[in-house]
């Protein structure tokens, strides 16, 4: 199978809250990239008609929240795969720093950011 990912994903565990149409669920972040997230599938969660969710991720041992709108791409009983469709400036700054610290390669991070900018221009 051809690898379709364009962004490096880092394994990172953190608590997350999903909300959609007044419903709310607790989940755990499993991994994250500049473009998407992988969450544990919350107990009692069922897919709805709207693919967009509000997601709030709290970075452990900090007061940093990553707040975003994410679109459900795929799911199974263990996980939800989501594409980030909107993220505020503070959250993207924190996310960039988190990825920078975890990949340890400035050149690779800059390539990722350029690719993200290219995708935004194509939309």
Automatic annotation (TrEMBL):
Keywords: c-di-GMP, Nucleotide-binding. Residues 3-100 form the PilZ domain. Monomer in both c-di-GMP-bound and free forms. This is Cyclic diguanosine monophosphate-binding protein. InterPro entries: C-di-GMP_BP_PA4608, PilZ_domain. Binds the second messenger bis-(3'-5') cyclic dimeric guanosine monophosphate (c-di-GMP). Can bind two c-di-GMP molecules per monomer. May play a role in bacterial second-messenger regulated processes. Binding to c-di-GMP induces a conformational change of the C- and N-termini resulting in the exposure of a highly negative surface on one side of the protein to a possible effector protein. The keyword Nucleotide-binding applies. GO terms for molecular function: cyclic-di-GMP binding.
């Amino acid at each position: 199978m051809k690898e379709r990912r364009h962004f490096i994903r880092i394994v990172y565990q953190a608590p997350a809250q999903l909300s959609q149409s007044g419903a709310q669920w607790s989940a755990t972040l499993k991994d994250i990239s500049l473009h998407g997230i992988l969450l544990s599938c919350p107990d009692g969660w069922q897919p709805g008609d709207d693919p967009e969710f509000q997601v709030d991720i709290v970075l452990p041992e900090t007061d940093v929240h990553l707040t975003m709108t994410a679109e459900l791409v795929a799911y199974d009983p263990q996980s939800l795969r989501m594409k980030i469709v909107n993220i505020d400036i503070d959250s993207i700054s924190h996310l960039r720093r988190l990825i920078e610290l975890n990949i340890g390669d400035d050149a690779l991070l800059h390539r990722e950011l350029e690719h993200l900018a290219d995708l935004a221009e194509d939309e």
